[in-house]
Amino acid sequence: MTALFVIYVITGPLLWVGLCVLSMFARVRMGRLLRSKDQLHEPAPTLAIVVPAKDEAGNIQECVRRLFAQDYPGFELVVINDRSTDSTGEQLDDLAGQNPRLIVKHVQSLPAGWLGKCHALNVGTRGLSCDWILFVDSDVNLAPDAARRMVALAQTRGYDALSALPTLEFAGFADRLLLPVLAVAWGAAFMVSLTNDDSKKHIAAANGQLFLIRRSVYEDAGNHEAVKDKIVEDVELARHLKANGARVRLMLGQPLATTRMHDTWPRIMHGWARIFAGTARGSTGPMWAILAVVWIGTMSAFLAILIGLLGSSSAVLIAAAIHLIMVFGYLFQSYRAAGLAFWQSLVFVPLLPIAAVGLSIVLIFSLISSRRGWVEWRGERVRL
């Protein structure tokens, strides 16, 4: 019993103490954008905001309006109509006629060997002469000062690329329960906070929804052509930039932007399988590690409580109580950081067993995708 208890303490409570400490350091490392008071240098560097849009007829006018609300001085907006089959292109042309700062580019076909978003962004950045490029997805809602604060931080600190993680918007039960857990699991599996450590050349990640890059560095790295066939082009571009000596940063950006990700179970499963399997580059180790943490390092707390009660062991019960406090505290903070209200986070934390099952299904699907070498995304099979 003593040996089993020691094993449990190491793989359960102590593991979670370590995870919580590492998470605290990671949040400090990634929170610099939120704490920054840096100001733009005068004159402000030139900026182009580049947005890919495919079949966004119901959203594109609001997207353009939101982006022109940025308080950044004198930026230009480039929107790429990427093979849309609805009225996205016509709406963009009408908007461009009303605002000379809006540049619209139309993509009619996809060249062999390219993925759609990579090609659209590559087309959108051709001929730009600005100092900085800010890539923004069409479903991201930026605060008016987002671009200014990101450029000011990158300029002042000498960063070459800076991406930010926005606040999540939720539509229902499944995305509220799972998206924060999946995001935290992805960050832990691939040690994304080490993106901000310049000495770790082989570790980098990014969020393509909101990604600022110095134009000269972007072009020297080969633009999006360098990652033209990568299913997680943002992560691969960050890796490529960092490996070539660029200073790359991934920051928390919750007050600066909001976005809605996958809002149904099928979209969650396919979308996050793409993210996990694509980031892993075919390796299965990170997914197995998270599964081990979930079922050995986490759910063992409930078994320990049962054993402690049946055996009247105060030592086991105390260890299990510490274990659950660390797990629930970590989970509560993850839900809060993702954008859930205080009371919602309290409600979702006890649903840990359900969240663990959902996370495990996604990870197993990711493992299958890694083994077979392709994922299904937007109705197409894409090779990893």
SSE layout and pairing:
Elements: H1 2-11, H2 13-30, H3 32-35, E1 47-53, H4 60-68, E2 76-82, H5 88-98, E3 102-107, H6 116-124, E4 132-136, E5 140-142, H7 146-157, E6 161-165, E7 167-169, H8 173-189, E8 210-214, H9 215-220, H10 233-243, E9 248-252, E10 257-260, H11 265-280, H12 285-295, H13 300-311, H14 314-338, H15 342-348, H16 352-372, E11 374-377, E12 380-383
Helix pairs in contact: 1-2, 2-14, 8-11, 8-14, 11-16, 12-16, 13-14, 14-15
Written description of the protein model:
The protein is an alpha/beta fold and 384 residues long. It has a domain at 32-172 and 190-260: Spore Coat Polysaccharide Biosynthesis Protein SpsA, Chain A (Alpha-Beta Complex). 52% of the residues lie in helices and 15% in strands. It has 16 helices and 12 strands. The protein has helices at residues 2-11, 13-30, 32-35, 60-68, 88-98, 116-124, 146-157, 173-189, 215-220, 233-243, 265-280, 285-295, 300-311, 314-338, 342-348, 352-372; strands spanning 47-53, 76-82, 102-107, 132-136, 140-142, 161-165, 167-169, 210-214, 248-252, 257-260, 374-377, 380-383. The strands form 3 sheets. Strands 3-2-1-4-8-6-9 form a 7-stranded mixed β-sheet, sandwiched between helices. It has a 3-stranded mixed β-sheet with strand order 5-10-7. Strands 11-12 form a two-stranded antiparallel ribbon. Helix 5 (88-98) links the parallel strand 2 (76-82) and strand 3. The protein starts with a helix and ends with a strand. The mean pLDDT is 92.
